[in-house]
Task: structure prediction
Amino acid sequence: MNIVMTIAGSDSSGGAGIQADLKTFQELGVFGTSTITALTAQNTLGVEGVFPTSVDFVKHQIEVVFQDLPVKAVKTGMLFSAPIIEEVAKSLCEKDVLLVIDPVMIAKGGASLLKNNAVEALTTKLLPLATVLTPNIPEAEVISGVEIKSEQDIQKAAKKILGLGVKCVVMKGGHLDEQRTATDTVYFADGTSFKMESARIETKHTHGTGCTYSAALTAFLGQGWSLKEAIIEAKKFVQLAIETPLNIGHGHGPTNHFAYNIAKGVCEVNIIES
Result:
């Protein structure tokens, strides 16, 4: 059995965070474990409260799981504060695992999920450990310090992010207004890159898309897929989840974690080699 871990916050509405990650792991046939960094009170309309886990208990959760279970891949999501980020980095630095970092900063409803003073800890302590980083455009702007309005800006920001020690960065282009497709550009530290294009879906039901994508990527890596293959297949997973929404809630509803298996993974994603 392939075992993976998510280190993230709890979403009481079930669309994002730990809940989305574990649903994704289950759908893709890996055994999911978890470390909860914060509890949130939220629904599709927004986040109404955040209660962070203590740093010591974050450490304890990670240690206890790794003492007993052979975790192959780990993803991080909402880490909330600099002390938690530093502890996660310290706990993982000597572990032989693949690490997917989803740099969760802002909820769909606009609530901050990462303290302002935590960005430095993220970039200096955790990112150098990353197998792959999966930022959206606003997150990439914060991490790189580059304002992104075009594909040239994406490339410039990616170069800066790779300079932080990240081995691979998936620059998710869903927030880029000039694109007619949902185009993600993948950059590797060796200088190679490629693009993934899929249909842009006009929907408000995109709560948890970043969590879901990074969880799918973690699941495929945990199963032994190559990094490139895992990145592409995870794109298919989240694309199908967006294309067939559950249409629940009065705000930004969740994606459909059941869709990939129902569609048997059949999804049109155009790969453009650089």
